[in-house]
Design goal:
The protein is mostly beta strands. The protein has helices at 2-11, 16-31, 35-46, 62-84; strands at residues 89-98, 100-108, 111-118, 126-135, 138-148, 150-158, 161-168, 176-184, 189-198, 200-208, 211-218, 227-235, 240-249, 251-259, 263-270, 275-281, 286-293, 297-305, 308-315, 323-331, 336-345, 347-355, 358-365, 374-382, 387-396, 398-406, 409-416, 424-432, 448-452, 459-465, 470-478, 483-491, 495-501, 508-516, 519-527. Helix 1 (2-11) crosses helix 3 (35-46) and helix 2 (16-31) packs antiparallel against helix 3.
Length: 528
């Protein structure tokens, strides 16, 4: 108690220099929730002023009491702002890029590298892509490599030899160009093998029975026909040789995955068709195993949670719009079935990652129906049954995410392709604050909602708690992203309660989202 008395009795003598020191310290300390240290330092700072007799608190006149209230209010605002600033991922480093299409992180020894695929600058696709090296708490340019419409990097190793393959999409005049496999010579990457490709958009490296394979996704033939062939290559001990051609339809991505440690699959994202096709290895070649209904698929991500297997498809557009649903499929023991649909905007890529048994997906949203590339890409967190949005990242024609860990810190790289007609823009490295994952679910401290009763029948209440005031939008969507209910209100009080009556609402799972400026919060609602 004496600590608090000292704190309040000396606030009235706080001068500007003390306040500046106090502001910087209290912001960081409250942000880290080290309250005891915070109050201790307050005491030390305030007792540096003229008044040191704490008993004078009893003789403070009304005007000094007003001072105490005023400064206490200011101090509380500082602490509040610090607590509210906590985010899942924050900008850490900006890296100049030219139509960035892909990031690929890899390690050689204890050193982390980051390969960047530059597709084009404002005038040409025949430009340099780059490799960055981690050191002194940042990535610095390490090596530049000549590329032609670079669309993808793929890192792999065979025995102790390191390789890096680039998918070259086209030159200034032709789709038929060589894609290149580089190898590490101890100091840098050098050319190891050149492979003739046509509109190569992706490499996928995978191993079966201790043998390395490469699959290249070809978007078209030389004439621009998207009904073309993609190719599987096999390592013969010295180089990669073609072993199988598979007909694809504007292939943008290959994804290799294994089920039950024995079943080897390859899934291809056919961007210019209505489906994603899954192939299974029969011992000699890959044969068609399943066709998934998935329009305009630009990328595929495979992952496993609690021994369940999933495929996420990023769906760039349907027949009429870039605002469409991307899909998550789940393995039921014999095939993949639709599990969840997530509204996305010109989705280009998914990236799955996990931190301390917390599972995440982030989507790269590329463009909307108005050819606007400045959009929010979204990070989703697994809540035990579904992926729910937890964080928005402002991006510029986002094409790719890459997750990496360096020592005990976690990062996300986003590739920004363009801003309007400008391709020479920065891509971003974000630092993840894993300390906020201590709760069972991610919760914003400045904005929260409650739904009750939950499950509900045909009526429920929405309670929004926030110190913020202003326009508030409520959206209720089903698992397919369809809007079931919306309401616009102006929030004035710290707590706002909205009664919702929907007698015709079908039974099932819904997502209730409250949006206020840049703040948003989403919860699940079950309707019986």
């Amino acid at each position: 108690m004496q600590r608090f008395r000292a704190y309040f009795s000396e606030v009235k003598n706080l001068n500007l220099s003390h306040f500046k020191t106090f502001f910087l310290f209290s912001y960081n300390q409250i942000k880290q929730t080290k309250i005891n240290i915070f109050f201790y330092i307050c005491t030390v700072l305030f007792t540096r002023s003229k008044t040191t007799d704490h008993r004078q608190i009893s003789s403070i006149k009304m005007k000094n009491l007003k001072k105490i209230i005023y400064w206490a209010f200011i101090i509380n605002l500082i602490g509040t702002a610090a607590c509210f600033s906590q985010q899942f991922a924050t900008d850490f480093q900006s890296i100049p890029t030219n139509g960035a299409n892909d990031w690929k992180s890899f390690k050689i020894g204890s050193v982390t590298y980051l390969a960047l695929a530059n597709y084009q600058n404002n005038t040409s696709v025949e430009i340099n892509s780059a490799i960055y090296k981690w050191g002194n708490n940042q990535f610095s340019l390490f090596q530049e490599l000549s590329t032609k419409g670079a669309s993808d990097w793929e890192y792999f190793s065979i025995n102790s030899q390191h390789f890096l393959a680039v998918a070259n999409y086209k030159s200034q005049t032709s789709y038929s160009v060589n894609s290149v496999i580089y190898t590490w010579n101890g100091d840098s990457m050098i050319v190891y093998q050149e492979i003739p490709t046509c509109a190569a958009y992706d490499w996928e490296a995978f191993s079966m029975n201790d043998t390395m394979f490469l699959a290249v996704a070809s978007q078209s033939d030389e004439s621009g026909n998207n009904n073309s062939y993609s190719t599987i290559y096999k390592w013969d001990g010295a180089q990669f040789d073609s072993i199988q051609n598979i007909q694809t339809h504007g292939a943008s991505d290959w994804e290799a995955f294994v089920i039950d440690d024995t079943l080897h699959y390859l899934a291809v994202a056919n961007t210019y068709s209505l489906s994603t096709e899954i192939f299974k290895w029969d011992g000699n070649q890959f044969v068609s195993a399943q066709v998934l209904s998935s329009m305009g698929t630009t990328g595929i991500e495979s992952f496993s949670i609690d021994n369940d297997y999933y495929l996420a498809t990023s769906n760039g557009r349907d027949l009429n719009s870039f605002n469409t649903n991307s899909k998550i499929f789940k393995w039921d023991g014999s095939q993949f079935i639709i599990y969840q649909q997530i509204p996305t905007i010109g989705a280009f890529d998914w990236e799955y990652f996990s931190i301390n048994n917390h599972h995440f997906l982030c989507v790269a949203n590329y463009q909307d129906n108005n050819s606007n590339y400045n959009l929010n890409s979204v990070i989703y967190k697994w809540d035990g049954s579904l992926f729910v949005p937890i964080h928005d990242v402002f991006t510029h024609g986002a094409t790719d995410w890459d997750f990496l860990q360096i020592e005990n810190k976690y990062y996300l790289c986003v590739a920004n392709y363009k801003d309007g007609n400008e391709h020479n823009i920065d891509s971003k490295l974000l630092l993840i604050d894993e300390t906020i994952l201590t709760d069972e679910t991610y919760k914003r401290q400045d904005f929260s909602i409650k739904l009750f009763p939950n499950p509900a029948l045909n009526q429920f209440s929405i309670s929004i708690n926030s110190f913020l005031s202003g326009p508030l939008d409520i959206e209720l969507r089903d698992v397919y992203g369809r809007l079931a209910y919306s309401q616009h209100v102006v929030k004035a009080d710290n707590e706002t309660k909205i009664e919702v009556y929907l007698p015709g609402l079908a039974s099932g799972l819904y997502f209730c989202k409250a949006i206020m400026g840049e703040n948003s919060y989403t919860l699940k609602l079950i309707v019986r």
